[in-house]
Amino acid sequence: MTEEKNPVVLMETSMGNVKIELFKDKAPISVRNFLSYVKDAYYDGTIFHRVIKNFMVQGGGLDTDMQPKKTKFAIKNEATNGLKNLRGTLAMARTSVVDSATSQFFINVVDNAFLDHSGKTPDRFGYAVFAQVIEGMDVVDAIREVKTGNKAGHQDVPVEPVFINSIRLVEE
Known about the structure:
Blueprint: E1 8-13, E2 16-22, H1 28-39, E3 46-52, E4 56-59, E5 89-92, E6 105-108, H2 122-125, E7 129-135, H3 137-144, E8 148-151, E9 154-158, E10 163-169
Antiparallel strand pairs: 1-2, 1-10, 2-7, 3-4, 3-10, 4-6, 5-6, 5-7, 8-9
């Protein structure tokens, strides 16, 4: 019996390509959710709308006018899966409500242990890691260096938009 490989996606951004491995065994709900958006070409033309140089880059939900795209239902937070918010991992973005993640994700550009699950209360529940960059971390590092400012009531927005042109499943 061969071990089933984790799915891999290719994220094409306006600054280069990033290859990402999805941890379907550790984060099945988050991976299924993310892949449903990928299959629908939902991410095409969205932007990295929040870039904080020594923290993370976030995208997957807003267009260039900072308008949110319509999402599917929120999913269960899988932050208890044992995966850590280490540099190069992807986690589901959410509001202060534990089970509120939809389409948005972020890529940790440094180790962010304070985002890991550390308790049952909303402020300690953590952010569910579901994937990891396996190629193109140099592209992520280039994105984290872009100049940011305020736009449409949001902070840390790249002055020149950084687009997610597409995210597609890579066929093995």
